[in-house]
Amino acid sequence: MSRSVQLLLTENVDNLGIVGDVVNVRSGYARNFLLPRGLATVPSDDVIEALKEKRAKAERELAALRSEREKMIKKMEGVEVTLKRSCNDQGILYGSVTQQDIAEAMTGAGYTVKPRDVRLPHTIKRVDTYEVHIKLDQDLETDIRLHVEADRVIDEDRGEEMDFDNEGNLIEKPRRKAREAAEGEKSGA
Asked: HSE (CB half, 13 Å, CA atoms) of 125?
């Protein structure tokens, strides 16, 4: 059996084509996905002619979607989104911020963004500000600013560093607050 096969799409298929396109796909993709779901068929002149009206409608819908996305990209310039998350005292999140979280926040702000449109270069696991890339189409993309904030006040007093002697034993130090209180009594006396 050949490695690829030529099929005529009977429905729009993401990242492959629209109704009426003749595409070359791997035989397994055709056999296991496209043909059983009725998304494609063997190309013939009769079927191509029958799909002309459906293809014209799909092209109009794609043109309308494209113009809508162009307007949305222009509105997204300089957008800032804030997410509040649980974290420890060092600002490390207990979970990570996902594409789904960002897409939901953008949708809540009035922008129609799907999770697959959000491009994260790395996992977001800290409280900080990030630049997030949004790509709606091949040439329709922008960056937004994402602020990840703690859901509570982070305790800035992180304690003191632990010191060890040459033998590896912990060197006991007076606690900072006790030392500050003692210093306060000295200066007040």
From this structure: 5
Question: What is the rounded CA–CA span in Å between residue 92 and residue 128?
Answer: 10
Does this model's pTM top 0.70? My answer is no
Task: Kindly report the three-state secondary structure assignment for every residue of 65-101.
Answer: HHHHHHHHHHHHCCCEEEEEECECCCCEEEEEECHHH
Write the pLDDT tens digit of every residue in 49-90: 888 888 899 889 989 988 988 888 888 888 899 999 999 888
Is CATH 3.10.430.100 the classification given to domain 74-150?
A: yes
80 phi, psi to nearest 5 deg: -125, 135
Mean pLDDT of the residues in the chain: 85
